[in-house]
Amino acid sequence: MIMLWAVPFLRPFRYCCETRLHKVYPVITVVNFILLGLTLHSLKSITFNDLFFALVTGFEEAVEKTEQLLLGVAALVAICVVWKFKDRVFEVLGVENAASLFGDFRDWATCWSMKRFHPVELFIWKVEGLPSARLHSLNDVFCEVSLGYNVAMKTRVHHRAGHSCVFKETLQLNFDPYDTEHRLTISIKSQEVVGAADIVQLQLGAEQVRRLEERMEGAASRTIGWGSKADPAVWAPSNFQCMDLVPAGKIYLRFVKAD
Questions:
Q1: What is the pTM assigned to this prediction?
Q2: 22 and 142: one domain?
Q3: C-alpha–C-alpha distance, residues 3 and 10, integer Å
Q4: Reported confidence tier of residue 106, pLDDT bands at 50, 70, 90
């Protein structure tokens, strides 16, 4: 039967049949069924009914296996979708910093070791040239910083700061210099009656933070955190890097490796 279906592609039949396949194959199919009927009629060990029900059984098993395969593929796709959007799902459920619950490949590969992290102190001096979040009032400015597994941290709100604000605040972060996925996000926001409105933003990759990172002289005797406000050398303008905010404005930052 298969040989008959292959005849139109063999010489010398190919040249006369290649443009008439839509007519040739129905004839070949009818001839095949006639030959099959004659063969089954001459055989005593198998009948046409046996062949028919065997084909039906095989088709039924194929449908069942295909259904099981499709259900398995659908389950895998559903798991991948849930895993892809797990952070948003947990955010909707009110779970803060949901990424730390599952981690990523580096966490599983290192058995959740913290050796690749080291503490970094971020000094925020001031911001300038901020656009207005509201047309009818001045900005009530505060800064929100997030990086990877660190809990999002916020400075205090500076009421009616307007287009510029002097923060002089420090934040401590766990920093992974080899993390190429997470970015340090510094958001300048305006406090509203309910929630906050984004004004400007700055994002820095791990390599950028590593280049800006410095070691502070006399770190052993320096007060970390709020006490550093009393040290004028810490807040010397020459120590800070001016960076452009998006969409407008400038921010003055400093990164110190807090060993």
A1: 0.60
A2: no
A3: 10
A4: confident
